[in-house]
């Protein structure tokens, strides 16, 4: 196979954390994950990650893989990678999941193309579903789990696509389990994951119309 | 049953195997991969100046991969041009077939597509890389043992 990717996301992926947006509504947007490339940095980073994990475990112990958030990074201004060249980002973009191999600033939403050791997940940018912090966290922890699972795989579009597709399937599962529901106020209402089920309440008899 | 070209090749001592005629009566020959480039040059010199199509297919699960070439001899004032179909079979484990790009330039994209879909690597092809699938794609989609990845697609949109 003629894969030309020179990056190997071979070492530890650690979670860079998602960042709250400008407003409360956009609280779930960015979510970054990093793959450290140098061993020395990795070690120090791992310590940090462990600390973060411990902190998190104190806060809310769960069985699932904990998302490991990171502190905001300093953004380097991108060159020659403007919005017009969006397709050149190493990314996997589907309707509800956008994964970029870049760091995205939570406040300014600026991309940093130099930090290709981080993966950023943008969840449901079109607001098709109603998200709560819990369901967001479920998706994020699943993302972390997948990133840990694909540790060592080459950082290519194909791998990102595998991760993104798995997350999409997971979102679909959440929807079918009733954890999330369609946002009826979204701009495009085409029920891309299946028509909503309507549960009729058969216990109540209709009153006779006199 | 031996066709004209087969008889001509036998006369010049070129190794091949006749596979009979297809439904249009076009002679079909099988040629070994290692002989294919030299025979292609000989056929070009003989007069087959037009590569009408090149394609590839997977013969059987776990079997050989085939690369097929349809050659035509274009001449002035001929309404029934001579045609021949060449099949070259390569083992699935290491499918290597010499490229005919340097004989018929039109083989360029077609061999790239065959490489993309079936993973036949054409030796001496100038830029053999994927043409339809993304470059980071894994696997050869038209092989019979290919398993499509479980990529998410919008299926239920209304």
Description:
Chain B: It comes from Semiliquidambar cathayensis. Chain B: InterPro entries: NADH_DH_suC, NADH_quin_OxRdtase_su_C/D-like, NADH_UbQ_OxRdtase_30kDa_su, NADH_UbQ_OxRdtase_CS. Chain B: One of its GO terms (cellular component) is mitochondrial inner membrane. Chain B: Belongs to the complex I 30 kDa subunit family. Chain B: One of its GO terms (molecular function) is quinone binding. Chain A: Keywords: Membrane, NAD, NADP, Plastoquinone, Quinone, Translocase. The complex is a heterodimer of chains A (210) and B (158). Chain A has 210 residues and is α+β, with helices and mostly antiparallel strands. Chain A has 3 helices and 9 strands. In chain A, the strands form 3 sheets. A 5-stranded antiparallel β-sheet of chain A has the order 1-2-7-4-3. Chain A has a two-stranded antiparallel ribbon with strand order 5-6. Chain A is elongated and about 70 Å long. Chain B has 158 residues and is of the alpha/beta class. Chain B has one domain: NADH:ubiquinone oxidoreductase Nqo5 subunit (Beta Polymerase, domain 2, 2-Layer Sandwich). Helices cover 22% and strands 26% of the residues of chain B. Chain B has helices at residues 4-11, 33-46, 107-118, and strands spanning 17-21, 27-31, 50-58, 65-72, 83-90, 96-98, 121-123. The radius of gyration of chain B is 18 Å and the shape is elongated. Chain B starts with a helix and ends in a 35-residue tail after the last strand. The model of chain B has no long low-confidence stretch (mean pLDDT 90).
């Amino acid at each position: 196979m003629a894969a030309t990717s020179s990056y190997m996301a071979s070492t530890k992926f650690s979670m860079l954390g998602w960042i709250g947006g400008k407003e409360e509504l956009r609280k779930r947007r960015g979510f970054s994950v990093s793959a450290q490339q140098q061993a020395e940095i990795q070690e120090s980073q791992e310590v940090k990650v462990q600390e973060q994990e411990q902190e998190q475990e104190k806060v809310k112990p769960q069985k699932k893989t904990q998302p490991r958030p990171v502190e905001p990074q300093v953004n380097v201004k991108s060159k020659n990678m403007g919005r017009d060249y969006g397709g050149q980002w190493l990314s996997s973009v589907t309707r509800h999941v956008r994964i970029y191999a870049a760091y995205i600033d939570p406040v300014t939403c600026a991309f940093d193309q130099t930090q290709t050791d981080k993966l950023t997940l943008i969840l449901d940018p079109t607001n098709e579903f109603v998200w709560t912090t819990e369901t967001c966290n479920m998706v994020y922890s699943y993302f972390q789990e997948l990133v840990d699972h694909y540790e060592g795989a080459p950082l290519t579009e194909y791998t990102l696509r595998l991760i993104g597709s798995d997350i999409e399937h997971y979102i679909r599962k959440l929807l079918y389990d009733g954890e999330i529901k369609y946002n009826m106020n979204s701009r495009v209402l085409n029920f891309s994951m299946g028509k909503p089920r309507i549960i009729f309440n058969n216990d109540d008899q209709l009153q006779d119309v006199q | 049953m031996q066709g004209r070209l087969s008889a001509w090749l036998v006369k010049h001592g070129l190794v091949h195997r006749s596979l009979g005629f297809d439904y249009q009566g076009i002679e079909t020959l099988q040629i070994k991969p290692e002989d294919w480039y030299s025979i292609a040059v000989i056929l070009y010199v003989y007069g087959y100046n037009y590569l009408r199509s090149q394609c590839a297919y997977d013969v059987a699960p776990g079997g050989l991969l085939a690369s097929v070439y349809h050659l035509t001899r274009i001449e002035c004032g001929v309404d029934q041009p001579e045609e021949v179909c060449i099949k070259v079979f390569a083992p699935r484990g290491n499918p290597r077939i010499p490229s005919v790009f340097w004989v018929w330039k039109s083989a360029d994209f077609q061999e790239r597509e065959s490489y993309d879909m079936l993973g036949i690597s054409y030796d001496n092809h100038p830029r053999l890389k994927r043409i339809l699938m993304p470059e980071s794609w894994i696997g050869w989609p038209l092989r019979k043992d290919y398993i499509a990845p479980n990529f998410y697609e919008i299926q239920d949109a209304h």
